[in-house]
Specification:
Radius of gyration: 24 Å
Strand order of the largest sheet: 2-1-3-4-9-8-7-5-6
Helix content: 25-40%
Distance between the termini: 38 Å
């Protein structure tokens, strides 16, 4: 196998995912894993992940330095690159930081950059950088502000950028080159993973009953299908309307239940319960926690109803995927918390045991599994919709008026994307409502109304994203429709922020 050492990077598991997609088994270990443990696993190579710390920061995570004596190839990515630089050369903090897209000049291909062009697009996210290396190391690439953007020696390799993200154009090629350097056997495939997950779920649940939160999105659909294959009709799928769903969502989910032929499914309108608790709340973290806790309350109420005619329910199934856990800083001792996902802010005292069959997968891996399970393409191609729904797209206070405005604006945007053939060309698209009003003029009269922001991104796994270059005439048409058809809006803007530094959702 190829080991990935986790230093708290937001894309650590994405490294392992990419390696697995190239047919090589990969496993992630914490940064403080001992060399003895690594020797037991007998890896063909090691990748040191990125992380939020500076290598000179007090308490910054450090590996067992004996890993450099193992005699196997080691690739450092971002923070890992700097760790190697600090151990064998010199690292410094620079005033000029690099985030997002950058162009590197490939000075030499070496073994790591075999097949790359003279100039390549990469994805940067760093402040510190390597500025000096000893003899035996060769600089492979640089940028205007980073003179050592990549290096290699006989066994040590480093890249300041992130080859694991989709927006590094030849990132997969770089990882493939490293796999070839390590001489790793290519004997891993997604079919084995589907069988393994079903087997593990069946073993954990046994003959018990599961209540499953089902939104109709890709994650909950694939998770429910996996659990259904593992335990059959012992799964009870529940759709909860928290009052923050999209226009026509209720009817669409009812249709999904019929298509999947789940024997036990339930539609619950809990909108009043959720919206009452959210009244006056503006802090996004509080919103997420209220929604997460209220979901559990509603589920537990539904459990009591279901158990009147069924055996005791012991498990709560969720479609949590790895990016949810990363942004909630769950997987690592050193990860930085970005935001708490509603399904990860569960009450400490909860009767149900949580089962999350997709918790170690990214969105692209979830879709791969879905294809293995023969889930229809139109469902697998649906854009992500967050569990808290419109709550995190209505910045500030949630009111009935704002919900109505956003539902209508979002419906126009998505409808136009679909009718224009652009829906499948974007990874996620939605409208958001800003908590401010602006002055406008309609029919020669002054208006003072809300601002709608349109957001559309391209991505593969949600860990990085670029803004979609939608045609000007399309955006103009959408803007005109929203302003003319949605009462309470007089201005529409288009968000062109990448991730990082932004997140895809606003809250």
């Amino acid at each position: 196998m190829l080991l990935v050492i986790n230093f708290g990077g937001q894309t650590c598991h994405l490294i392992a995912r990419r390696v697995r997609s190239l047919g090589v088994l990969s496993e992630i270990l914490p940064f403080d894993v001992s060399v003895d443990k690594i020797k037991e696993l007998n890896p063909c190579g090691i990748i040191l992940s990125g992380g939020p710390n500076s290598v000179y920061e007090k308490g910054a995570p450090q590996p067992d330095m004996k890993i450099f004596e193992l005699g196997i190839p080691i690739l450092g990515i971002c923070y890992g690159h700097q760790l190697i630089g600090k151990q064998f050369g010199k690292v410094t903090a620079k005033e000029v930081k690099e985030y997002g897209k950058a162009e590197i000049d490939v000075n030499k291909q070496g073994k790591l950059f075999k097949g790359l062009d003279k100039k390549e697009l990469v994805w940067m996210s760093h402040g510190d950088q390597v500025v000096e290396l000893p003899k035996g190391f060769e600089v492979l690439a640089s940028t205007d502000s980073c003179k050592i953007a990549a290096f290699e020696s006989e066994k040590l390799f480093g890249v300041q950028f992130h080859p694991e993200v989709t927006h590094t154009t030849k990132g997969i090629k770089i990882l493939e080159n490293f796999i070839d350097i390590c001489k790793c056997p290519k004997d891993y495939n997604i079919k084995d993973l589907a069988k393994q997950i079903i087997k593990e779920v069946k073993y954990e649940i046994g003959t018990d009953q599961v209540i499953m939160g089902f939104s109709g999105g890709v994650d909950s659909t694939v998770a429910a299908s996996l659990i259904h294959q593992a335990i059959g009709d012992n799964i009870h799928c529940v759709f909860i309307d928290h009052g923050l769903i999209r226009k026509h969502e209720w009817d669409e989910v009812k249709g999904f239940f019929k298509r999947f032929k789940f024997k036990n499914h339930y539609m619950v309108d809990a909108s009043k319960q959720f919206l009452t608790k959210l009244k006056g709340v503006t802090d996004p973290e509080k919103k997420r926690k209220i929604i997460g806790h209220t979901f559990i309350e509603v589920f537990e109420e539904q459990v009591k109803e279901i158990e009147k005619n069924n055996p005791e329910i012991k498990f709560l199934g969720q479609g949590t995927i790895y990016p949810d856990r990363i942004e909630s800083a769950q997987p690592s001792k050193t990860a930085s918390k970005i935001k708490s996902h509603h399904n990860l802010t569960l009450p400490e005292k909860m009767k149900l045991r949580v089962i999350e069959p997709l918790k170690d997968l990214y969105k692209d891996g979830v879709r791969d599994l879905g294809r293995e399970l023969e889930i229809p393409a139109d469902i697998l191609g649906r854009h992500p919709f967050p569990g808290p729904g419109l709550a995190i797209r209505i910045l500030g206070e949630i009111t009935d008026e704002r919900i109505k405005i956003l539902q209508e604006a979002d419906y126009i945007f998505i409808s136009e994307l679909k009718s224009s053939g652009l829906y499948d060309k974007t990874w996620q698209a939605f409208a958001a409502l800003f908590p401010v009003k602006s002055v406008g003029v309609m029919g020669d009269a002054r208006t003072y109304e809300y601002v709608i922001s349109l957001r559309a991104v391209t991505s593969l796994d949600a860990m990085t994203a670029d803004w979609s270059k939608l045609p000007d005439e399309f955006l103009e048409r959408v803007s005109n429709r929203i302003i003319n058809e949605v009462k309470g809006v007089n201005r529409v803007v288009y968000d062109i922020t990448q991730k990082p530094p932004g997140t895809i959702e606003y809250e």
